[in-house]
Design brief:
The complex is a heterodimer of chains A (114) and B (110).
Chain A (H helix, E strand, L loop, with lengths): L4 E3 L2 E4 L5 E6 L6 E8 L3 E9 L2 E4 L8 E7 L2 E6 L8 E8 L8 E2 L3 E5 L1
Parallel strand pairs in A: 2-11
Antiparallel strand pairs in A: 1-3, 3-8, 4-5, 4-9, 5-6, 7-8, 9-10, 9-11
Chain B lengths: L3 E3 L2 E5 L4 E7 L6 E7 L5 E8 L4 E4 L2 E6 L4 E6 L8 E8 L5 E3 L3 E6 L1
Parallel strand pairs in B: 2-11
Antiparallel strand pairs in B: 1-3, 3-8, 4-5, 4-9, 6-7, 7-8, 9-10, 9-11
The chains are: A mainly beta (114), B mainly beta (110).
Chain lengths: 114, 110
Amino acid sequence: DAGVIQSPRHEVTEMGQEVTLRCKPISGHNSLFWYRQTMMRGLELLIYFNNNVPIDDSGMPEDRFSAKMPNASFSTLKIQPSEPRDSAVYFCASSFDGREETQYFGPGTRLLVL
Amino acid sequence: GEDVEQSLFLSVREGDSSVINCTYTDSSSTYLYWYKQEPGAGLQLLTYIFSNMDMKQDQRLTVLLNKKDKHLSLRIADTQTGDSAIYFCAEAGGGNKLTFGTGTQLKVEL
């Protein structure tokens, strides 16, 4: 299995621009998670989906952030408009509803907003 | 709400054992996990333990769980330079979410 795939791996953009991050979960997994990691705040859960439905978006910072999961094999996290404080590493993770909820992480997208 | 705490740094000499500690607050946790994050990479699952166990061993890794004190530890025997990374503990308290600790940066010195 290829594991969780994220794209792009690196993104540099200017303040005010729209940023779209993409994630392909592991085939057969039915839960998908978006995290943000910064030095100051550590690892934060932004939103998670179960069976393509958003279950908990309480970690989404503000209305500039939105996430979608149109099907079981694809999700996007969009920031519009982006701000310098959004600079972070964004991770996608997936898991399967089973006896244990092990999450498998993608390599992350390193976002720099100038 | 759930809270998971770890010390921020640990420094050990190569060949020594490392012990990384974690405390959590959710007594309903079913599984507890250890993840490893190397520089510039994502989190990699190292091991996990079910809450009705008190110990799990996997090669150089030993996980100890004290459910009464809500304390989890990860022991790495014969620590190598390749073990230098950030180690996160996490707990599954129900639903699909994991609550992660702040991470412990392990530095292995020659």
